[in-house]
Amino acid sequence: MSFRIAWRYFFAKEKRNFIHILTMLSMLGVCVGTAAMLVVLSVFNGMQMLTIKLHAAHNPALKVSSANSKTFKAEPALKNVIKQTEGVLHITEAIEDNALVRFNETNLAVRMKGVEDNYDKQYNLKPHLLRGELTLNDPKNGLYYAILGAGVMLNLNAPLAEPAYPLIFWYPKRGTKQTLDPSKAFRQSSIIPIGVVSVEQQFDMNTVLVPLDFVRELTQYEPDAVTQLELALAEQIEPDKVKKILQEKLGKKFVVETAIEQQESVLRAFRIERLFAYIALAFVMVVASFNIFFSLSMLVIEKKRDIAMLSAMGSPAKTIKQIFWWESFLVGSFGVFLGYLLGFGLVYAQQEYGWVSMGVASAVQEAYPVEMKFIDFIYVGLTVLTITTLAGVLPAQKAGRLAESRYSQL
């Protein structure tokens, strides 16, 4: 009965007073707040999706590394175990390490990544090539080439494919005591830059791709030493499934990571930012729910006579409390429903037409990426309904106390 009374009052045509207008404004505030939460969460989802997509251009589907040391031996027996795993197509030996690059008078600390010649089967760098070529070796002339991230190229300002202007890599010698003479403390090796790629900020500002043999010569690692084995998988193969099989085969001495796990630090930052944005918007909804509290409090004062009549007719205080509680629930429910429609429409329009751009001419994507997830609708709906429903608790208790006292102003 309490719900029917609240429903009839909510849709009553004859009530067009200030309290009704305030109630409708409260519902509008809930609608806008719900839509804002959905849009913000969809933007974070889109940015996370774009980050995963960009990192996939230079991260392998699976990476095998040592659990206890920086390097390990890529022995044939180990590689055979990996190759025999269903879904694995290619294995690329790789060494990642820090190094100092010098060109003219410019020094730059970079992340040097040495890879085998089949690296193109691991990474999709062709769409990201800005200048030059994607080659690392010239067997005829015995030359090594380097592919630079766009930020590295910008800082060094080195010409491409000019043997007379190579980059000089410096790497600390092993077992060397401290000395002020760089020639004794560091090994040096030169290489010719031949290509520039732009993938994502972290890669662009730090990474240089070079041949694996070049890195082994510079670092004096053993001929079969690697920091990781990078695996390319067949299409329609789930990386998590292959990872589980490989981890069981290789044991605790090795760590197998999927492409998403390789960028876990970046994705964790997105999740933290998304959480704080969600909490901030939830607090905004708490402020917006004050309108519901005030409108219901004023409604209780206006309906003292009706409350007294219902009490005199035998309605318990509990029923009268529920009438006002249901009123707040209806305001929140219709506000959430309208917010769903508005938020869905805005996100869908952005997906289809890209009306809101990134605002940066060199951005990897012109329009802001967005992605709707059904779970977001559930979280937002529950959060908003909880806040708006709680806003009606105190007015409902006040109405119950009036019913218990049976006072009215007739």
In short:
The protein has 410 residues and is α+β, with helices and mostly antiparallel strands. It folds into two domains: 193 residues, no CATH class; 197 residues, no CATH class. Helix 2 crosses helix 13, helix 2 packs antiparallel against helix 14 and helix 13 runs antiparallel to helix 14.
Q: Give the number of DSSP strands.
A: 13
* Element string (H = helix, E = strand): HHEEHEEEEEHEHEHEHEEHEHHHHHHH
Gap between N and C termini: 24 Å
How many structural domains does the protein architecture include? 2
Amount of helix: 40-55%
- Summed up, the helix count is 15
Radius of gyration: 32 Å
Strand content: 15-25%
Gross morphology is elongated
Sheet/helix structural class: alpha+beta
Sequence stretches where pLDDT stays below 50 over 5 or more residues = none
In what order do the strands lie side by side in the largest sheet?
3-4-10-7-9-8
Question: What is the mean pLDDT?
Answer: 82
Main β-sheet description? 6 strands, mixed, barrel
Report on the structure:
This protein folds into 2 domains: about 1-55 and about 265-405, no CATH class; about 60-260, no CATH class. The two termini are about 25 Å apart. α13 packs antiparallel against α14. With about 400 residues, it is α+β, with helices and mostly antiparallel strands. It has helices at about 1-10, 20-55, 75-85, 150-155, 180-185, 200-205, 210-220, 240-250, 260, 265-290, 290-300, 305-310, 315-355, 375-390, 395-405, and strands spanning about 60-65, 70-75, 90-105, 105-115, 130, 135-140, 145-150, 165-170, 185-195, 205-210, 225, 230-235, 255-260. The strands form 2 sheets. A 6-stranded mixed barrel has the order 3-4-10-7-9-8. The protein has a two-stranded antiparallel sheet with strand order 2-11. It is elongated, with a radius of gyration of 32 Å. The longest helix is centred in the N-terminal third of the chain and has 38 residues, at about 20-55. It contains 15 helices and 13 strands. β6 and β7 (about 145-150) form a beta hairpin. About 35% of the residues are buried. Helices cover about 50% and strands about 20% of the residues.
